[in-house]
# Entry
Amino acid sequence: MNRFSHTLLWLSSVLLTIVTLSCCTPKKAAVPTDDPVVEVPTFNADSAYSYVAAQVAFGPRVTGVEAHKACGDWLVGKLHELGAAVTEQTAELKAYNGDLLPARNIIGSYRPDTRKRVILCSHWDSRPWADNDPDEKNHYTAIDGANDGASGVGVLLEVARQLQQKEPAIGIDIIFFDAEDYGIHSHDEGHYVEDSWCLGSQYWAKQAKKSDYMARYGILLDMVGAPGARFCQERLSKRYAGSLVDKVWRTAHAIGYGDYFPLEAGSYVTDDHLPLNDVARIPTIDIIPYDEEYGFGEMWHTVKDDMSWIDPATLRAVGQTLLQVIYNEK
# Structure
């Protein structure tokens, strides 16, 4: 055997030993790098749809009228039925035209003693006037507000039903704001008053600041029921709570609802999330459809805003995304 053959034999022996040792040496168990997967409830779109229809059945929910009071009583009773600790804020709020509105914010809390909290909110009143209607005869006719108002509340009532059945790791406050849609009539040029919209959320935010209430963040729903709705990333939401926008839209894409939540910048929208950000200092985003060409949709502030504009598929996309987000909070 020459020196080269001897060297090859020696190398083969060493390699065999290494392989043998590696096969016989016990390996450490793999350490999980991800948290356990949270089981998220399934959002029932038919249930949410029925909650929207129940509100619309009362008639236009204009702040201060009888249908408004009756619907408010129903919402309070429904939240109690769904296991929430319910509180109400009542106040007379001055509208842009000087009317005093008997406003009523309705709050349903889950795990009320938990300091880690998240707000889910929507307005529950409807517009007193169809001032965007193409027929000027309807400009002072109250609207049903199926999409603009009732859709967000319907989604949140179904979320509440799920919270009752499966408790999340954090506290949830569901807030129905009143007097959001009593803002200045678009054809009334003689009465301009700053901040004439979102009166209920303005009042709530001031009280929250006085009481040192705090939440991790808030998510506002507005007009979340129309067929094929596209919820672009509202720009004020991005400014105040960009990381939350990213989380919600990323979640929607992960569970298959990316078509409803395009990764596109929307417009600046003045809505109930502004007082929560500016006054209560709670980072809050707005899930709202807005198109530069068509605005909020052809039914917006018209007499056509009825149940024909409510699509369970859109309610499901929004509701399931919300559930996915809140049940993964720690």
Summary: The chain has a mean pLDDT of 90.
